[in-house]
Specification:
single chain, 333 residues, alpha+beta, five-stranded mixed sheet, four-stranded antiparallel sheet, 17 strands, 21% strand
Length: 333
């Protein structure tokens, strides 16, 4: 193994060579290109996983930085072969333009028909495949949506000055609870309170809701500009159970401090946190089911699906909006 690591250019950019995983696909790809004449073409049948699985990172980087990937042909089916495959058409010369190539599906006669630009994630050299590869359809096949398999809701629409407090004494009333917001929610983890959290407690009080609505109506009658009473909504007493533990809490904001888009969900197993509209709530009577569901929601596969199906607002490249997933979109996961 040390011989291949030292001799093959695929691994020349690797600083820590102790943890490298090597397989024959990497070696055959570089060997085949070394035997190809300059400006010659090598067509290589390879596992579809090569395009985005981590183990092939160095091979993809080597290929993209040193050769011209002219075409990727997908949707290939071979008798008695379950694994999906693709064909890489590689020209042995460095590309004149960065990442200049096309992909197409099998049986497309003209390279101008059914052709889409294939993007590359420059951080990990993963190929971002067009949705025409039907990956989304495979995900949806024989599956159910989140809204169909669990009870879902969003936190309370409140006015902070009436419904939030930082005084621990309010907990003497059963209507007050520990408050969580998007900033408290991380993948598989909930931090309460955070260092910057100003309001630690929130009330679920339907009587207070009606009182504040009356105040708002009166202000509007007097000509004041204020919030419409209908926008204040904490829900009915019959709906309060959605906040009871156990439940999954999903942050409506889906990007972390570094701007990386990620669904962030955690399990509230026994506390029973309450929150405002910055969080979504997912309820089911079976705690084991909730734990499995939590793993699925936090998975990269569900994130991929959410982005591909445009369920995340502000996830588009160049968007200046804070990426969010709304309740209706969450139910479609």
């Amino acid at each position: 193994i040390r011989y291949y690591i030292d001799k093959y250019e695929t691994f020349s950019s690797v600083s820590n060579r102790k943890n490298i995983s090597i397989n024959t696909i990497m070696l055959f790809l570089e060997r085949g290109l070394s035997l190809t004449q300059n400006s010659g073409i090598l067509s290589y049948i390879i596992d579809l996983a090569f395009l985005n699985v981590d183990v092939y990172f160095y091979s993809r980087k080597f290929l993209i930085n040193n050769y011209t990937l002219q075409e990727i042909v997908t949707d290939l089916k071979f008798p008695q072969i379950i694994a999906e495959a693709c064909v890489l058409r590689i020209i042995k010369k460095k590309s004149e333009r960065e990442y200049n190539f096309f992909w197409r599906k099998k049986n497309v006669n003209s390279p101008l028909k059914g052709v889409s630009i294939l993007e590359i994630n420059k951080d990990d050299y993963q190929f971002i495949l067009s949705s025409n590869l039907n990956i989304n359809k495979k995900i949806e096949q024989k599956s159910t949506t989140l809204g169909e398999c669990a009870e879902t809701s969003t936190g309370m629409q409140i006015i902070p000055q009436y419904f939030l407090s930082n005084d621990e004494n309010v907990l003497k009333s059963p209507k007050w609870h520990k408050a969580v917001f998007s900033s408290n929610i991380y993948k598989y983890n909930l931090i309460w309170p955070t260092k910057k959290q100003k309001s630690k407690y929130i009330t679920y009080d339907t009587n207070l809701q009606e009182k504040v609505r009356r105040i708002l109506r009166k202000r509007i009658e007097n000509g004041d500009k204020c919030r419409a009473p209908e926008t204040l909504s904490i829900g009915s007493l019959e709906k309060e159970h959605i906040f009871y533990a156990p439940k999954i809490i999903l942050s409506q904001t889906v990007s972390n401090a570094n701007g990386i888009i990620n669904l962030q969900a955690c399990l509230d197993e026994d506390v029973g946190y309450y929150g405002n509209v910055s969080i979504h709530l997912i309820k089911h009577s079976d705690i084991i089911f909730l734990k499995y569901l939590l793993g699925i929601i936090n998975s990269s596969l569900v994130l991929f699906y959410a982005i591909e199906k445009k369920l995340i607002l502000g996830a588009e490249k160049g968007s200046k909006k804070t990426p969010q997933i709304r309740k209706g979109a969450m139910d479609k996961l």
